[in-house]
Write a sequence for this structure.
């Protein structure tokens, strides 16, 4: 089944468009955002987190999205949990 489009950064232009979808098959939130640069990757690596090994595994990555997209993330969470149908 196709991804369900939730929304795009409200301050987007044609070239810079962080986006949120939900995969209805896996009920996962899918994000498109800005690539994390070396400085942010270092911060993530150095940030202690309970029950979390340091660093970013090869099969994972980090992206950045603007805080102004919080409402879209909340909506995506509701859709993924079946609360917004």
């Amino acid at each position: 089944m196709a991804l369900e489009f939730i929304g795009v950064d409200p301050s987007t232009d044609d070239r810079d468009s962080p986006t949120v979808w939900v995969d209805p098959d896996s009920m996962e939130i899918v994000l498109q955002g800005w690539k994390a640069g070396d400085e942010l990757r270092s911060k993530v690596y150095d940030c202690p987190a309970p029950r979390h090994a340091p660093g970013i595994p090869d099969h994972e990555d980090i992206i950045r999205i603007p805080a102004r997209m919080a409402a879209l993330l909340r909506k995506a969470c509701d859709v993924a949990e079946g609360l917004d149908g």
In short: The chain has two helices and five strands.
